[in-house]
Design a protein that fits this description.
Shape: elongated
Radius of gyration: 25 Å
Largest sheet: 6 strands, parallel
Helix content: 40-55%
Number of helices: 11
Structural class: alpha/beta
Number of strands: 8
Strand order of the largest sheet: 5-4-3-6-7-8
Distance between the termini: 11 Å
Oligomer: single chain
Strand content: 5-15%
């Protein structure tokens, strides 16, 4: 569902009488309705299904992509979403920001009251608690984020570092964007197709250099991302050694994500040169992912405790919950 459609969709949903309160979360891979309703669960589920098909542009039939949860499962789901446990990248934090924006839109347009206000505020608190008390967000689980982490270890910070991209593939572009997001100052792009280099450099706010002349830029750069389709090494130890002297042996991070390899492994023997290939990066990412997966049980225990506390607190205030809190998702 397009973000611009959400305020209007919330208006129509509330006017329909199906729900008393509602928040719509729409991301690249999910559309979810968090609702407080006095309707019976089956009726609410059917009405919300029809609503999603109409406003989220889904074609019938919706089967596995659609589900309905009532309390306490719906609260558990909301808390797990906030903590990144339901994300494609386990433990990622982007979804929490998206959830906060979705709630803010509903709140600003008066589509939430006591039930959802308490539920969402508790979800945000639980996400913070999980983040500080577990390792679910520890480490980097994508090639780009691992590259950033390595750069920060070598240079203390990515800020003000210059980056060169050799070969304009998708993974190298994502890695360059990850470095830029952490403060890298400039991007130099070189590619066999100079047109492609110019286009990518424009997208990244950098500059393109001819493929035959990328080695001349080594005196300036701190980080090199290489991902060409060359059948042989494009950089070897004999070629790099004199370039390092020109750089006065300043640290150099080389990220070789090409298959077959672009950079000769023996380069790692040079002083102040740090070479990582795609297998190295993926192994680091997989190790971190395993560590995150080991934290799931701890996170779920915290969530179960917080859900129970919210339910008990509501009962102590003599606030009976609505019959159902449907959560509907379309992929």
């Amino acid at each position: 569902m397009a973000e611009a459609k959400i305020p209007g969709a919330l208006d129509l949903l509330r006017q329909s009488g199906v729900v008393e309160e509602a928040v719509i979360l729409s991301t690249c891979n999910r559309v979810e309705i968090y609702a407080a309703t006095s309707l019976a669960p089956r009726r609410a589920s059917e009405d919300l299904r029809s609503f999603l098909i109409k406003f989220a542009d889904y074609a019938e039939p919706l089967t596995d992509e659609f589900y309905t949860l009532s309390e306490p499962q719906s609260l558990q789901h909301l808390f797990k979403v906030a903590c990144g446990l339901e994300s494609m990248v386990l433990g990622e934090t982007e979804i929490l920001g998206q959830l906060k924006r979705a709630y803010e839109v509903a709140l600003q347009h008066n589509h939430t009251r006591g039930v959802l206000n308490k539920a969402f505020q508790k979800a945000f608190n639980v996400a913070k608690h999980v983040r500080t008390e577990t390792n679910i967000q520890r480490g980097s689980v994508s090639v780009g984020s691992v590259a950033v982490e390595l750069a920060e270890k070598i240079f203390s910070a990515v800020r003000d570092r210059q980056v060169m991209v050799i070969g304009a593939g998708e993974t190298s572009e994502k890695t360059a964007r990850a470095l830029l997001s952490r403060g890298a100052t400039s991007i130099i792009v070189s590619n066999r197709s100079h047109e492609r280099a110019v286009a990518l450099a424009a997208e990244l706010g950098g500059r393109a250099v001819p493929f035959e002349g990328w080695a001349h830029e080594f005196e300036k750069v701190d980080i090199v991302i290489s991902s060409t389709a060359a059948p042989h090494y494009i950089l070897d130890r004999a070629e790099l050694a004199p370039l390092m002297k020109l750089r006065q042996n300043r640290p150099l991070l080389l990220i070789d994500i090409a298959v077959p390899r672009d950079i000769e492994p023996e380069i790692n023997l040079l002083e102040n040169v740090y070479l990582y290939n795609i297998d190295d990066l993926q192994a680091i990412a997989d190790d971190y992912l395993k560590q995150r997966q080991e934290e799931i049980a701890r996170c779920e225990a915290i969530i179960a405790e917080k859900v129970q506390a919210l339910m008990v607190g509501r009962r102590s205030l003599h606030l009976p919950p609505p019959d159902a809190r449907p959560v509907a998702r379309g992929a």
